[in-house]
């Protein structure tokens, strides 16, 4: 039996709370909008992007494969001939970038939650907020990932296709999130608008 205090707390934390319900709906709508934009920009249907969930790629490929892929990828990124692209990663240590990426890939593709255990929720859009995630940057990132995948002999062709579809969709999901961030910066809150009118 719930105490009165627990009963009151559960009422306020309940999905029956109209504000929470509305916030959940709003968040779901934003997420769907970002997923639609990601599909539009990337040319990858959402079903194809999440085909990585049909197979446990971590069990199939193993930890070392993800470490090798991320190492190969970031070696290419840090050696990129385009200064504008290298500058995006200038404040990150390559070893940290490699670890963050392979731990996220492992977690997302069926393995243990290495990334979350060390860094918390992945929150991709929030974690990429400081970076200029543009269409051009996404294409350059994908260029290096495609080369890294192509040179990974331990990854079979079907897994490479599924992974690249996921990477392509996710890269443009981040572009859509970056655009949303830029739009939100341009729209002042109602309090700022009220102050500027007085």
Layout of SSEs?
Layout: H1 4-13, H2 18-42, H3 46-49, H4 57-61, H5 63-78, H6 83-88, H7 94-108, H8 114-119, H9 124-127, H10 135-150, H11 157-186, H12 190-197
Helix pairs in contact: 2-11, 5-7, 5-10, 10-11
Would you give an account of this structure?
There is one protein chain. The protein has helices at residues 4-13, 18-42, 46-49, 57-61, 63-78, 83-88, 94-108, 114-119, 124-127, 135-150, 157-186, 190-197. Mean pLDDT is 82; it is low at 2-14 and 186-198. It contains twelve helices and no strands. It is 73% helix and 0% strand. The radius of gyration is 20 Å and the shape is globular. It is mainly alpha-helical and 198 residues long.
Number of helices: 12
What is the strand content? under 5%
Number of strands: 0
Q: Which regions are unreliable across 5 or more consecutive residues at pLDDT < 50?
A: 2-14, 186-198
Proportion of residues in helical segments = over 70%
Shape: globular
Tell me, rounded to a whole number, the average pLDDT: 82
Terminal-residue CA separation: 54 Å
Biggest sheet overview: none
Task: Provide the succession of SSEs.
Answer: HHHHHHHHHHHH
Radius of gyration, whole Å: 20 Å
Q: Structural class, from secondary structure content? A: mainly alpha
């Amino acid at each position: 039996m719930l105490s009165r205090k627990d009963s009151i707390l559960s009422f306020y934390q309940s999905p029956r709370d109209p504000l929470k319900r509305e916030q959940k709906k709003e968040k779901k709508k934003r997420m769907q909008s970002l997923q639609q934009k990601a599909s539009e920009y990337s040319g990858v249907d959402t079903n194809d992007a999440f085909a990585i969930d049909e197979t446990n790629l971590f069990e199939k490929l193993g930890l070392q494969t993800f470490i090798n892929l991320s190492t190969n990828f970031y070696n290419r990124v840090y050696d990129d001939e385009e200064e504008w692209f290298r500058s995006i990663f200038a404040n990150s240590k390559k070893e940290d970038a490699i670890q963050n990426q392979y731990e996220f890939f492992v977690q997302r593709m069926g393995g243990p939650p290495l990334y979350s255990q060390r860094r918390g929720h992945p929150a991709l859009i929030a974690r990429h907020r400081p970076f200029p995630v543009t269409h051009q940057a996404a294409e350059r990132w994908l260029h290096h990932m495609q080369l890294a995948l192509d040179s990974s002999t331990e990854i079979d062709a079907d897994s490479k296709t599924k992974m690249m579809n996921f990477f392509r969709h996710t890269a443009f999901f981040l572009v859509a999130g970056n655009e949303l961030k830029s739009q939100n910066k341009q729209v002042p809150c109602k309090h700022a608008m009220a102050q500027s009118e007085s």
